[in-house]
């Protein structure tokens, strides 16, 4: 039996993780389950999985959580500091599935305990970069990518020497707007943006898929997870989302990982690593799918991947600024305050506005994130 914590248990990745755990109850002992504000759902999950502790990040929801779990023996806590404390209880495996830089501090707390970190929360790695990878090395933690592309690349690198890698190719679905004109993009609504053709995901990552910021963040994520050099990382649009990514070696061999567009596959790969476990996903039926197609991304309509590549090249605090500016812009778009095409434009404006110094520790990263958010809001108000 292995112990498990799920940070962001009420989200899309959290639900997929718990669906796998539900099928193997004898294999897992739940430590911490966390959520932002849905205390009712969190309490339900904590009871079902007999978690040690349930933590709600929004402290105003703690009374509700307490009441729902009264007399069950399950501990409850609320607020961002409690989230970090719960992650610091340590577990054999921690699934980092909070969305955004809000997941960084608890993920770092889990890393400091030295277990396996199954990382879905790409924004945390994008923002912290070397601060996180250094902590992983220092504490002897194991960072396993859950993001489907990175999980695919991780699998394609097994048993190979990264010195022989010619290219790592991240596939991108292109999102719901991949064939839209600039005029159409300018008028795209939040409801259209969160309706992804292949994947069922949270609202923020769905908008990121539509802008291609998701792929931009993933480029930076790959740069930290697989340090083969930025010039060896590239992106290809693959609308069917069946080939999850590829690694080409110097001899001309390309290894790819294929699977259904279901996050339970990469999550299972990380949960069971280095073993394998069953998933309820239907086997891949390539004959039914028929065609796998590929095309070059269009960075004129979707500038996000260019901005992310430039941010990765600049390094230091710049990826954290890019991420924070994008989080603010996506929230503003979802709230109906800015247009779809303003998301990338606004991120670029924030990147051009100032040059923070490279962070050396977690609190530096959080300070960069906070200032970038403030700058993004100021620019938005001035516009
Ligand atoms: P989601 O919105 O469905 O869930 C997010 C979870 O984080 C929820 O449990 C929510 O309560 C919690 N949360 C949100 N804000 C918080 C805050 N301020 N403090 C504490 N907790 C907070 O998101 P998701 O789609 O599950 O994505 C989670 C992460 O996984 C993201 O980083 C995303 O990019 C990544 N990811 C998701 C998918 C997917 O298919 N959904 C695929 C690859 C990577
Ligand atoms: Mg992905």
Automatic annotation (TrEMBL):
Limits of the 1-deoxy-D-xylulose 5-phosphate reductoisomerase N-terminal domain: 4-129
Cite the InterPro entries for this sequence: DXP_reductoisomerase, DXP_reductoisomerase_C, DXP_reductoisomerase_N, DXPR_C, DXPR_C_sf, NAD(P)-bd_dom_sf
Annotated ranges, domain 1-deoxy-D-xylulose 5-phosphate reductoisomerase C-terminal: 143-226
Residues at which Mn(2+) binds: 147, 149, 218
Question: Pfam families annotated for this entry?
Answer: DXP_redisom_C, DXP_reductoisom, DXPR_C
Cite the DXP reductoisomerase C-terminal domain residue spans from the record.
Answer: 258-374
The record's top EC class is oxidoreductase
EC number(s) on file: 1.1.1.267
Family to which this protein belongs: Belongs to the DXR family.
Q: Describe the function of this protein.
A: Catalyzes the NADPH-dependent rearrangement and reduction of 1-deoxy-D-xylulose-5-phosphate (DXP) to 2-C-methyl-D-erythritol 4-phosphate (MEP).
The name this protein carries in UniProt is 1-deoxy-D-xylulose 5-phosphate reductoisomerase
Q: Which organism is it from?
A: Novosphingobium malaysiense
Name of the gene encoding the protein in the UniProt record? dxr
């Amino acid at each position: 039996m292995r112990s498990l914590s799920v940070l962001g248990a009420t989200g899309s990745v959290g639900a997929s993780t718990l669906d796998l755990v539900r099928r193997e109850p004898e294999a897992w002992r739940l430590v911490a389950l966390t959520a932002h504000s849905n205390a009712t759902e969190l309490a339900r999950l904590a009871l079902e999985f007999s978690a040690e502790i349930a933590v709600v990040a929004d402290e105003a929801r703690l009374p509700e959580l307490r009441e729902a779990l009264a007399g069950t023996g399950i501990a409850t806590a609320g607020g961002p500091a409690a989230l970090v404390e719960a992650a610091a209880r340590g577990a054999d495996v921690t699934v980092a599935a909070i969305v955004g830089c809000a997941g960084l501090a608890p993920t770092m707390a889990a890393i400091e305990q030295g277990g396996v970190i199954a990382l879905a929360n790409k924004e945390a790695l994008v923002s912290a970069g070397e601060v996180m990878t250094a902590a992983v090395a220092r504490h002897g933690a194991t960072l396993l990518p859950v993001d489907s592309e990175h999980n695919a690349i991780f699998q394609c690198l097994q048993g190979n020497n990264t010195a022989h890698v010619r290219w790592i190719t991240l596939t991108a679905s292109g999102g719901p707007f991949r064939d839209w004109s600039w005029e159409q993009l300018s008028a795209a609504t939040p409801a259209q943006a969160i309706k992804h053709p292949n994947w069922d995901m949270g609202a923020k990552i769905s908008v990121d898929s539509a802008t291609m910021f998701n792929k931009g963040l993933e480029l930076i994520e790959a740069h930290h997870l697989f340090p083969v050099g930025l010039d060896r990382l590239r992106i290809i649009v693959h609308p069917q989302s069946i080939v999850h990514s590829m690694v080409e070696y110097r001899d001309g061999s390309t290894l790819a990982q294929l699977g259904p567009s279901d996050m339970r596959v990469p999550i299972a790969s990380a949960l069971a690593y280095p073993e394998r476990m069953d998933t309820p996903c239907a086997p891949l039926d390539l004959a039914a799918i028929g065609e796998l197609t590929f095309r070059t991304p269009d960075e004129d309509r979707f500038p996000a991947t260019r901005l992310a590549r430039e941010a990765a090249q600049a390094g230091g605090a710049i990826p954290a600024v890019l991420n924070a500016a994008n989080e603010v812009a996506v929230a503003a778009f979802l709230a109906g305050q800015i247009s779809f095409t303003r998301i990338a434009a606004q991120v670029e404006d924030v990147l051009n506005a100032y040059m923070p110094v490279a962070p050396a520790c977690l609190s530096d990263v959080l300070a960069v994130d906070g200032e970038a958010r403030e700058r993004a809001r100021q620019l938005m108000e001035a516009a």
